[in-house]
Amino acid sequence: MSGTGHSVPVRIARQVVETFVKTGRIPSVSEVPEFSVPGSAENRAACFVSLHRAGDLRGCIGTILPTMSSVTAEIVRNAVSACSEDPRFDPVECGELADLEISVDILGAPEPVSGPGQLDPKKYGVIVTSGFRRGLLLPDLEGVDTVTKQLAIACRKGGIGSEERFDLQRFTVTRYH
Predict the structure, then answer these.
(1) pLDDT band for position 3 (50/70/90)?
(2) Comparing C-alpha atoms, which of 80, 69, 49, 82 is closest to residue 173?
(3) Domain spanning 8-107: which superfamily?
(4) pTM for the complete prediction?
């Protein structure tokens, strides 16, 4: 397994991606390193697993709120989804594994905001909600340097038209490489 020297969340994600792509098997939580969310009594958190190859996005799947019993289980599930279920990409193949760059974003709890003035695309991710439609954009993404651009992308991801009303939430992330 490659990826030594990386953070624990990234080592978990890499082990899961490599095992799943090579064998089709999802490692159990007991087979991967344990990760605990600093300051969390429940040790649960939403997360995103992002895969890049040669600087280009190759897969990115995550959760807005925790869905699993632990953050480690959340990373395992989202790593499998990122490499095999992102509808924008074909599943990752064995020949790509050595070139994959993996990051894991652990999300803080979303908080409602009253308007765009409380956003900062470098510091906060954003969730836009209109009825049952929802779009999310992580913070500090290359090329997303204004609140207007951040909101436009999040709305597009959620299928929310530019003239529609939507509710706003922001969240912080801890990004692991």
Answers:
(1) very low
(2) 49
(3) Hypothetical protein ph0010; domain 1 (3.30.700.20)
(4) 0.93
